[in-house]
Amino acid sequence: MKNFSTKDIVFVGVFAALMAICSWISIPTTVPFTLQTFAVFLAIGVLSGKLGTLAVLIYVILGAIGLPVFANFTGGMGILLGNTGGYIIGFIATALIMWLFETLFGHKTVVLAISSLLGLIACYAIGTAWFMFVYTKNVGPESLATVLSWCVIPFIIPDIIKIALALVIGERLRKVINKMN
């Protein structure tokens, strides 16, 4: 931790807590969704790839050890090993992809937009593969098309909206934080 300032550590903690709070906010629709992915995109957009990824890792670790930071105030390895746990693990892949793009192309809005979309696709891929593995083991095989219709397709438009909001809000927050320095 010697490479991190006190301010860095505080911001990482704040964004890990924000991910927890956003996971508890459920938007009731035909298929309810939370704001977890919004907080992941926002963390990278505001903190940068390194610190944002650290915030995501801390969030996942807190949930893994049993703190109720996941949706519906849940936590524990049972959630990560359950049907939808792969999507939570996919947040780490999203953060890493966004960090990679930032490292290669800089911290620009267009780079964040593209890396967010690619990170979202990676999250969907990891989560869907895990869902199919666990679901097949516990219930029986299901087609990819059916699983996508349950776990991905209903979330595409809300997730694109979350990316857009994270880009707009993240840019404004970065300006405020930069003025504080």
Detail the topology: elements first, then pairings.
Blueprint: H1 6-24, E1 26-27, E2 33-34, H2 36-47, H3 49-64, H4 77-80, H5 85-105, H6 109-138, H7 144-151, H8 153-180
Helix pairs in contact: 1-2, 1-3, 2-3, 2-5, 2-6, 2-8, 3-5, 5-6, 6-7, 6-8
Number of domains: 1
Which structural class do you get from the secondary structure elements? mainly alpha
Helix proportion: over 70%
3D shape:
globular
CATH topology: Arp2/3 complex 21 kDa subunit ARPC3
Q: Give the SSE order as H and E letters.
A: HEEHHHHHHH
Give the biggest sheet: 2 strands, antiparallel
Distance between the termini: 20 Å
Provide a count of the helices.
8
Walk across the major sheet and give the strand order: 1-2
- Computed CA radius of gyration, to the nearest angstrom: 16 Å
Q: How much of the sequence is in beta strands?
A: under 5%
User: Mean pLDDT across all residues, rounded?
Assistant: 95
How does CATH name the architecture? Orthogonal Bundle
Low-confidence stretches: none
**Number of extended strands:** 2
CATH class type: Mainly Alpha
Structural account:
β1 (26-27) and β2 (33-34) form a beta hairpin. This protein has a single domain, classed as Arp2/3 complex 21 kDa subunit ARPC3, CATH 1.10.1760. Helix content is 76%, strand content 2%. The longest helix is centred in the last third of the chain and has 30 residues, at 109-138. It is mostly helical. The mean pLDDT is 95. It has helices at residues 6-24, 36-47, 49-64, 77-80, 85-105, 109-138, 144-151, 153-180, and strands at 26-27, 33-34.
